[in-house]
Amino acid sequence: MMSTNANSVATAAPKEWEDLSSFLIPKPDKVNGPTNPQATLRLFGHDPKDVRVTLYRDHHAWCPYCQKIWLYLEEHKIPYAVKKVTMFCYGDKESWYRKVCPSGMLPALSIDGQLITESDVILINLDAVFGPVPSSPDLDSDEVYPYRRLERKLFGAWCDWLCRRHVPLTGGESRAAESFKSVAAEVDSALGKSKSPFFLDSGFSIADIIFTPYIERMSASLTYYKGFSLRASYPNINAWFTEMEKRPTYLGTQSDFHTHSHDLPPQMGMCVSDGTKETRKMMEYIDGGYVDSPHYEFETSTTPSPDVALEALTRVYLHKEQLVEVNPTTDKGKFDEALRCVLTYLATGEVVKPPQGTAEGMRYLRDRVNVPRDMSLHAGRKLRIALELTAKLDGDGQWPRIQENNRRDQNPVPFVEAKRKREEAMVG
């Protein structure tokens, strides 16, 4: 395992880009392989002419309702195309999408050319056209309905606790916390009564799909803003997460605590910290990339594969020009070298001192590593650690805290344009 001790600094220069290219891992099969957030076409072994469905989802995989449809399609193995759209909180919505969907809503889904919006309506239509998810009742069944109500009840309690600024000394914060915990106990009890690790006795079903997006975000946001671990507090919910994390379909859509903690505020209006010492410490751990900290055992039950550091290296290498271009570091040559220092660490475990004045730029990038858009959860963790350890060697300089009213710092346009040019060059 790679050391996270930044005290033993190598005197050697970082590897050049050409040398780093020898560490790149093969590209995954995005079309027929495991669930992949970068995919634009999913065939599951079918012929391209079998594609009847197009999913319109957000570029960054932040939208919970998009995740619900995405997970359904992956579990059902329905061939589909993906078209990615900008959410308003991180950029301007594409004009072409307004022509497809005048409301601009996400997600949207086209079946045989017919556009459908609203995630539950989309699922009902998918059930009607393709049948329900294998071994699952359909969304509108009497068996699933109580779980749909329970999920909405949990969502409401979560919003009340996370997103309301309660008046001090009135007990509002503690009442909201207890209300959420009471509903979470209902969810835990429902799982405990099931004969399977999932909500239904028969096993994985659409009930699990509808719970997934927001309970994932609850686990992240309550840890970060309230110092409360959902998985540590409810054993059956934790067991459910563990079973979900055995499914490649879920792992391909799963985000992490850092991404959700900072993508939620502009979507929810606000996320309110309880301000306790324990919560502030947890925020520091998560924002700092968990460097020298044990506090991530309830983020995921999975263990990193041997190549996650090289996965992170490969993903950064692919976008290196854009990452240097959009970084606020004024001296682009210095930041290019700092980035090579980070990737040298990922490739070899060797810590290389970066150029002076690049710490802020590395922490700017550390704060904008996005899971699963950029890479898997464990690869994202490795990259944040590498960025923080390298930045420490240049001092404590920090970029201003991530904005909460919008995330326009994450505008996808430079990366989308670069991808388009690469594809055009390959065709030419």
From TrEMBL:
Protein name: GST N-terminal domain-containing protein
Organism: Triparma columacea
GO cellular component: cytoplasm
SUPFAM superfamilies per UniProt: GST C-terminal domain-like, Thioredoxin-like
One Pfam family this sequence matches: GST_C_2
Region Disordered, residue ranges: 398-428
Record PROSITE patterns: GST_NTER
InterPro entries: Glutathione-S-Trfase_C_sf (IPR036282), Glutathione_S-Trfase (IPR040079), Glutathione_S-Trfase_N (IPR004045), GST_Omega/HSP26 (IPR050983), Thioredoxin-like_sf (IPR036249)
Domain GST N-terminal per the UniProt entry, residue ranges: 53-134
Lineage summary: Eukaryota, Sar, Stramenopiles, Ochrophyta, Bolidophyceae
Biased composition (Basic and acidic residues): 417-428
